[in-house]
Every structure is written in structure tokens, then in C-alpha cells.
Amino acid sequence: MVDKQLERRIGQWVREKRGEIVGLVSELIRYDTVNRITDGTERDCQTFVAAALTSMGLETALYSPEEAPGFREHPAYFPGKDYTHRPNVAGRWKGRGTGSGKSLLFSSHADTAVVAPGWSASPWEPREIDGRLYGLGAFDMKGGLAASMMAVRCLIELGVQPDGDVTIESVVDEEFGGANGTLAGRLMGYNADAAIIPEPTNLAVCPATRGGALWRVTFRGKTGLSFSGETLINPLYDAGKFLVFLEQFERRRSDSPGPAPWYDEAAALPVIVTRAVAGDIAAALCDVGPERCDVDVWVECYPGTSERELERELTEEFASMFPGAPLPEFVKLIRFLPGCEVSPDFPLLPLLAQEVRDVCGTEATMKGAPFACDAFMFNLHSPTPAVVWGPSGANAHAGEEYVEVESLVLLTEMYARTIVGWCGTTGRPEGEMNR
Ligand SMILES: [Zn+2]
């Protein structure tokens, strides 16, 4: 039974706490938690999150991913990372344990992308301008983390304890395909009947995520000036053909829909050449062609596509477009991120759609996320089905990243209501209803 009075109190509490929501995200932004690929600096931020969860009354643990049982042996573990100063945080709010309530987990990452060009002020100095909160990680994804923390605080302060457990976790090392922090959380046993990942989705409910690979694609040649008639091969011409191919490959794939039901509309499926390097760029002049050309490229894919299939698709289509061109070598720069999805009849989905309808007054957008993230650690490697659902904003991984404050307020309200709806409140004593 829907408790209208409780819903009203949640809405009112969240509105009154708008300033505190902004304050919490701002506090998180001030910590430099840039992912440094093999290392990171999340510790101080994670200590702050742990203290906040403890002060709310949650059973909180700050632990190194290395402590997770079977961490390094797990097939989804990706080596080469240093977790010395990078603890995960998990806070568990015990439910009433009536046996009837389902459990829920909010999983965020504390690390941010690197500082991209285009910032007009310090990325770690939050600024609220016209309803937008600017700062590195505001959108991806400290805003969502703060919303989940405030949602739990809301219910605690309203005296509502759900039947099932609610867990909030903040993991390290998600950017650059890290995902080991998320793996560690699963191995530590922080699993639930459902997980919500508050990555930025502009409030769309995303039951699926894309996958992707970041490769270094290398073409080799022979350099010199051919004084003795040596055959020279300039790898730039082959790399150039490959670049022309990639542009067409992206266009072709973006014209066709992906797998139903979450990606059945044609949408841009990015192929991003992130870097192309050839020749001695440190030298004042070059009078010969390069020995090799490296093209770094990020290629996204839909759920169900494996790393091998994606690489085969690229090489076969390149070979058919440019017959006779040498096939390049592929070296993986980060882990392959598989796409993933939850079942269309996952019972959390209609509940989330209902929350969007009730709180935002619009029909929920329910579709696959237009990005890859660590949701696969849940959906492919744990018993916990995960849905991505987070705030509105823009410029993730770019200068002037911001989150829309109103969307955080709405999200906090919807998260709190989702806890009530999913975890149940049948154990609530009489009288509490009217407090
Ligand atoms: Zn993210």
C-alpha cells in the first residue's frame, strides 16, 4: 500500500535539505580523486565518506580491495594496479530483518576522470551558477553518491527503517576500465537483491550498459631514403587507410539498431581515435618516414559482443574495404569492458519507472546507457542485478563538468522512495506513520 503521507514527508525533507545536498557534493568535489591509471588518491575522500556513513548510524567498513577474498584470482581481476592508498567504503543500514523485505545497494565510484582542457577555474573548487554545480566529478559521479547518502539520511531522520538492508558503497578505481574496486565489493559480500549505480544518466533508467575496448593499433614500416633501392614502407599510409575506415565503420554501425529491448533504436556507437603517433616528434626535423604508427582507439559495443568478436569485426571490415592493406597489431590498453543488461522482467524496473512518473511528472526514459561502466561486475560476476540511474548534467570527462542541482534533489527523493518501495516498511510500528 502506498503511504502518501510518508511520500509527502520525504518530498518535504529533501526540499528543505537542498543546501545540504549541494554542500555534500561540494565537499566530495574538493577532494582530488583523479584516477592515475595504475594508482590513485581516493583515500582522504573515502575516509570522509566512511565518517559520514558512520555518523548516520551505518555499519561502515573501510577496506583495501586487496583484502577481498579471491581478489587476485578472480577471472575479472585486472592486474597492474596499486591499491596501497585506495580503500573502498561500504556502509550497511540494517533492515528490520522481518524476512519480507528485499535488500538494495547503491554503488558509486569515488575516483574521477583526469582534468580535461577547458576548465575556467579550479576543477576542485565547486561553483554553483544558475542551478548548475560545477566541479570535477560533480556529474561523474560524486553527485549521485551524495544523492544516495542523503536518501538514506532522509529516511533515518524521518524514523523510517526498511525491512531489507540498504548498503551504500563508494569504490575506488572505476575510470580507465579499473573496475577492480567494484569487483572487491562483490567479493567482500556486499551484494543485494538489486543495485542502483548512480552514474550520470540524465535521470533515464538504464537496465543495460554498453561495452568497449581501448586498443593501440600499430602499423609498421621501413624507413630510410632508398639510396640503394631499398623498398620503403611508410606506415602512415596504412594508418591513414585505417582512419578512413574507422570513420565509415562508426557511421555504418550508428545507422543500425542494437539488440532489443534496450538498444533497439539506432544511436551513435562511438569509435573515438584518441591519439595517433608517428615519427620522432621530439626532433626539430624529420627527413625520413616513421618506422611505426600507433593509433589509439576506443571502440564501443553492445551487450553480447565479446572482445574477440569486436576485434574480428574491425579487422575483417578493414580488410574488405582496403584489400591488400597490411593488418595491424592490436594491443589492449585497458581491460575490455563487456556490455551487460538485466532481464526485462526484473521487478525493480517498474518501481523505478513509477518513481520517475510520480516525482518528475514525466514518463521514465528506459533504455540502454550510452556508455560503458563497471555495471558488468554486478551483472556478469555477482548475484546482484544492477541498473544505472543517476542525475542530469553535462561535460563528463571534459572541462566545466557540472551536475544540475534540481536533478539531484529529484534523485534523492526518488532514491528514498525506492528504498521504501523495494525494501518494504511492513515492520513499521503503529503510530510512526503519523509522526
Ligand atoms: Zn563514472
Automatic annotation (TrEMBL):
SUPFAM superfamilies (alphabetical): Zn-dependent exopeptidases
InterPro entries per UniProt: ArgE/DapE_CS, Peptidase_M20, Peptidase_M20A
Keywords of the record: Hydrolase, Zinc
Keyword Phosphoprotein: no
Residues annotated as signal peptide: none
Superkingdom in the source lineage: Bacteria
Protein name: M20/M25/M40 family metallo-hydrolase
Lineage, highest ranks first: Bacteria, Bacillati, Bacillota, Bacilli, Bacillales
